[in-house]
Specification:
Helices cover about 45% and strands about 15% of the residues.
């Protein structure tokens, strides 16, 4: 597990539609350069073929080397290993965390969790961070009620892992989430849906720094 201070505080999470947009790679490069080592781009796709995902991940990893921004591959440990990504993000549908670490002991593993109990399990299994949601309405999830900062506080009570809040997070939410104990935030449309994704990433980092973050 990397030192807590090395864990990115701003996670820009993609989807199939985002990754398929014309000019995605250029936008991702701009976002990664703005975030630097404080950020991570999560390549999360379900429709790309293994070959296409490997190719896209490899291009992002080239920018990772230049910018210091992490590339995190959702679910696919094989792609993360083959391309040199910094980490893999696992969900309840992925292989178990201990199995992923056995396959790739040098790979950093994040866990997606939806309850304090799942956070405790992720910690026990060896995850380096927990992406916890759904916090606010308005992101990729549908039919889920807003759980807010109280949910993050409940997760923090059950784990020492750095907790990354996801779900409808806007820059104005960052202070409250940090106050609730969140290490950082994960964003989908807040960055990729903005007219200027680079400026949007800057806004999130500025909001974090305004709260005394590092």
């Amino acid at each position: 597990m990397p030192p807590t201070l090395a864990i990115p505080i701003l996670h820009a999470v993609t989807s199939d539609d985002i990754a398929a947009r014309p000019g995605f790679l250029d936008r991702a490069a701009a976002v990664m350069r703005v975030m630097g080592p404080r950020g991570a781009v999560h390549l999360r796709t379900h429709r790309l073929s293994a070959a296409d995902m490997n190719s896209l991940a490899g291009k992002l990893v080239e920018i990772q080397a230049e910018s210091g921004c992490w590339v995190v591959i959702n679910d696919r440990v094989d792609v993360a290993l083959a391309t040199g990504a910094r980490a893999v993000q696992l969900t309840s549908r992925s292989i178990p965390i201990p199995d992923a670490l056995a396959m790739a002991p040098a790979l950093t593993v994040g866990a997606s969790i939806h309850s304090p109990e799942e956070a405790a399990t992720a910690e026990r299994d060896g995850a380096a961070w927990a992406v916890a949601g759904h916090v606010f309405p308005g992101e990729s999830e549908t039919g889920e009620q807003e759980r807010g900062e109280a949910f993050i506080m409940g997760v923090i009570e059950r784990t020492i892992l750095p907790v990354i809040a996801i779900g409808g997070v806007l820059p104005r939410h960052v202070r409250g989430l940090r106050g609730a104990g969140a290490w950082g935030v994960a964003v989908i449309r807040g960055i990729w849906g903005a007219a200027d994704a680079e400026a949007a990433a800057t806004d999130y980092l500025s909001a974090y720094d305004a709260d005394g973050g590092s």
